[in-house]
Design a protein that fits this description.
The chain is built from 5 helices and 11 strands. By secondary structure, the protein is of the alpha+beta class. The longest helix has 19 residues. The two termini are 25 Å apart. This is PsbP C-terminal domain-containing protein.
């Protein structure tokens, strides 16, 4: 059991590094992203009917992403793209006028049940601090409506980039969902904390 738990912790720590690739400052190409307008507009034609469009529907001022057992809502005016990583698909959403900040969502099945949140933080935080020695790293339980969630905040140099990242690890059975907000240093953020938390709280895992 301890061996399995240690493996799970290692994989969870690795999620952070993998998600950084999906949280870069580059905006999605227009051809590979969709806002709620294009998602909900059935008049869009031709080859533009991508998996992005099929997996989203607008609900008022929000777009609901629903695909591969993962559902969450984000502002309808935002762009969305999918990035494939070795650990799985990462969905990246951001405002059209993003200053380089973005939100990335990735789900990973660890193959073994994850521990309670407090135990998870106690096991994962030291590994993150060791992995990102040039950054200030903190961890705590999430105080929002999403249950069984750990929050890790990192500020400093991450994989050669000066940035801030706040990552929410949502634990659900054998699955881990990482919701990451990242912003390069020195820019005025276009995404506020309340919006990120609203995405986290809207998330559902099948």
């Amino acid at each position: 059991m301890k061996k399995k738990t240690f493996l799970a912790m290692t994989l969870c720590a690795a999620v952070l590094a993998l998600t950084l690739a999906g949280c870069g400052s580059d905006k999605p190409d227009n051809d590979n992203s969709s806002s709620s307008v294009s998602v909900s507009d059935s008049s869009d034609s031709g080859d533009s009917s991508s998996s992005d469009e099929q997996s989203g529907e607008s609900a008022g001022d929000l777009t609901v992403y629903n695909d591969n057992g993962l559902e969450f809502s984000y502002p309808s005016s935002w762009m969305k793209t999918n990035t494939n990583t070795a650990a799985g698909d990462t969905i990246v959403v951001m405002p059209e006028d993003s200053a380089g900040d973005s939100v990335a969502v990735m789900v990973q099945d660890l193959g073994t049940k994850v521990p309670a949140v407090k135990d998870y933080i106690n096991a994962t935080l030291p590994m993150l601090q060791a992995q990102y020695a040039d950054a200030e790293v903190t961890g705590e339980e999430y105080d929002g409506t999403q249950k069984d969630t750990a929050v890790f905040s990192l500020t400093g140099t991450l994989q050669g980039m000066d940035m801030t990242m706040v990552q929410y690890h949502i634990l659900n059975g054998t699955k881990l969902v990482a919701v990451s907000y990242s912003a390069p240093a020195g820019v005025e953020p276009t995404i506020d904390d309340a919006t990120v938390k609203a995405i986290v709280d809207s998330l559902k895992i099948a």
